[in-house]
Amino acid sequence: MALPNVKFTNNLGSIEFQRCLLSIGDNWEWDGTNTKRSKTIGVEGHLAQADDGFEGVLTQTGSGTDRTANLGLPGTLTLPWTTLHGVKLQQITMPESTWIQMVPVQATFVDDTPGDKAYTISFFGLELHNPRIRVPMLDAPVRDTYLQMQIEQGSSGNIATLRSGAIRQRGNCGVMQVEVSGHVVVENGQLPDNLLFKLVQRLGTPGVESLVEDASYPNGYPNIFPIATAIPELKGELAFESAFVEKARVSWNVETGSAAVALTLCCPPQKLAEV
Amino acid sequence: MAIVDFKQVRQVEPSKASPINGSVSRAMGPLDGSLAPRQTLYDATWGYFLFGQQVTCVYGENDAYVDIAEFTIRGQFTPAAEHASGRLSDPSSDQACLLAMTARLEALEQMFDAASLATAPESLADYGTESDPRVIRLPEPLRDKDGNPVYGIPTSISVEPSTFPNGLAYRAVLREAKFPDTKLVVNDSMLDAGTISINLPSPILAKTEMVWANGAALMLKNYSVPEVTCQGLLPHLPSSGRSLTDREIRLIEGLYGGVMDVKLHRLDPVTRQLKEDVIFAGVATQEPEMNINVKEQVMEFTVRGMGRS
Fold first, then answer.
1. In this predicted model, what pLDDT tens digit does every residue of B82-141 receive, in sequence order?
2. What stretches in chain A show pLDDT beneath 70?
3. Which burial class, exposed, middle or buried, applies to A2 when counting CB atoms under 10 A from its CB (0-12, 13-18, 19+)?
4. Contact residues, chain A, for B196 at CB < 8 Å
5. Are A96 and B72 a contacting pair at CB < 8 A?
């Protein structure tokens, strides 16, 4: 039986290895709380001169209309007996050798998001990678008022048990803040369309988007929305009502094509929502 | 910004090899290195060599990768090739052979060193091209899939165990001359590792807590103006007798007016033409800072800009 072919395809293109030997391993990493699973795939194959080489899945390669994007995404790895999705290409090596009709190639892949769990969240359709969520809880503030003179303990009337202490008052619960952060993909040096207007969530019609002109932002009140509408992944216990965007910040690394987004959503104090 | 496409390399057939410089010599040399299918056996600068490359994908927080290649050249200089090239007059002298081969290695080292000390071109469109003095062109027949030369940034060069004076083997590693397609420009000064942080306009609220109920009454008074912070790096390689580079001086003097224009220089992915995107213009600056790490030879720059209401 001939050694199989293995093909990897992502947003940039594809690369097919011929006459492959495969190694596949599953790893479980225990960090004291959770076990994180990942799958690693090693391919020792060949590329033929007649076929495309490495360039199929590389960024910023080619010229003219063939030029690929500046960012590569996880893709699909087609094995002889199955197809794996969401696989990340790690490394491809052509060792020092003489290249004739075929070139030996070694490639490694990793799938660190196995299963069908959600690994990203979205804010009004804006996908956030590696998201973090700070969950608020009902919090009634405590205020201690320190006394200038000692008072009796209880109602004993015994001056021997006077104490110096504080009168404690507990206020009502304050507003809650849900903090959401993550990273968005910025392709080809331009922020996603309407990113800033999507983050500020204000009523009204936006003008021409400008980063620093307040007049370009909608002129209305903050948009009030249920959190489950903004972030569908938070349906259920964290589906708080009547939230608005209190703060929003974008940190854009123009060279790596990544923008970190941090949002603070303010909502009235409320218990966990009904599922 | 490309890797070597091995379709450009053809099998070397012994019958088509020819003596170096056409003379009767034990050293066989280049065939036709400039035309496809390219075949070569020997390069005047690199000697006889084998080539390998490795591409590593670096993933960011956004689960997307940028790949970077590393080129490895294992080369060898031989007395026969040096004699055939006219650089060794007496091949019977071991000392002369060693000196001749060492001279070739030193020439390679000097080429690597000169590239590492060079400064970046003024225009982003020249990065990683023949106009970029920081890069070194790989020898024939190593070209990319479109037949263009491939350039690398020197990483290391070391002598391999060799049997002197029969040959001098070395291992050279170069990093792919790949640069970002987008650069941050502040007042016409192009920065490396540029980031733009934007605090979007947020509601200014008057909060009144209520005695009889949870929560608070919020009244919208206004919105804050957007605020941006630009950060970036510049290489700090002042000439002898100076404490700042021309680029650093230009950046400082450009902010004397308290106003900055921030742009992106972007290479169009299809045409590779340089485009200039104005992100914001005429923004009032606050608290510009320049921190120099002398040992690391880098300057870190930060400036805040206040938006307009």
1. 888 888 888 888 889 999 999 999 999 999 999 998 988 988 889 988 999 999 999 988
2. 1-2, 49-53, 62-68, 98-100, 153-158, 209, 274-275
3. exposed
4. 211, 251-252, 254
5. yes
C-alpha to C-alpha distance for A232 and B187, rounded to whole angstroms: 42
Measured between alpha carbons, how far is B92 from B89 in angstroms, rounded to an integer? 9
> What is the reported pTM?
0.85
**Could B198 and A247 be called an inter-chain contact, meaning their C-beta atoms sit closer than 8 Å?**
no
**How many whole angstroms separate alpha carbon A265 and alpha carbon B93?**
81
Convert the pLDDT of each residue in A151-204 to its tens digit. Answer: 776 666 667 777 778 888 888 888 899 999 999 988 877 888 788 888 999 988
What was the ipTM of the complex prediction? 0.84
For residue B63, the chain A residues in CB contact (below 8 A) are 73-74, 88, 120, 129-130, 183, 185
**Cα–Cα distance, A133 to A233 (Å, whole number):** 11
Q: What are phi and psi of B226, to 5 degrees?
A: -65, 145
Q: Do B60 and A60 lie within an 8 Å CB cutoff?
A: no
Distance from CA of A26 to the nearest CA of B (A): 20
Shortest CB distance from A254 goes to which of B195, B269, B305? B195
Which residue matches tokens 């094509």?
A257
Q: Are B127 and B27 in contact (CB under 8 A)?
A: no
CA A80, A81, A83, A89: dihedral to nearest 10 degrees?
-50
